[in-house]
Amino acid sequence: GLAAKLPSNVRLIEQCPVLKVEEGSPIKLSLSQGEIKTDKLILATNYEACKLGFLSSRLIGSTLSGSFTRRLDAQELSTLGSLKEWGVLSLHGGGATIRLTSEGRISLRNTAEYSGGTLLSKQRLERRQAIHRASFEKHFPQLAHVPFEYAWSGVEGISRNGTNFFGQQKDKIYLAGGYNGSGVSKGSAFGHSLAEYASGGQSSLITDCLASAPAKWIPPRPFLDIGAIFAVRSRFRGVGLDR
Ligand SMILES: Cc1cc2nc3c(=O)[nH]c(=O)nc-3n(C[C@H](O)[C@H](O)[C@H](O)COP(=O)(O)OP(=O)(O)OC[C@H]3O[C@@H](n4cnc5c(N)ncnc54)[C@H](O)[C@@H]3O)c2cc1C
Question: Which of 48, 143, 174, 177 is buried most, with the most CB atoms less than 10 Å from its CB?
Answer without folding.
Answer: 177
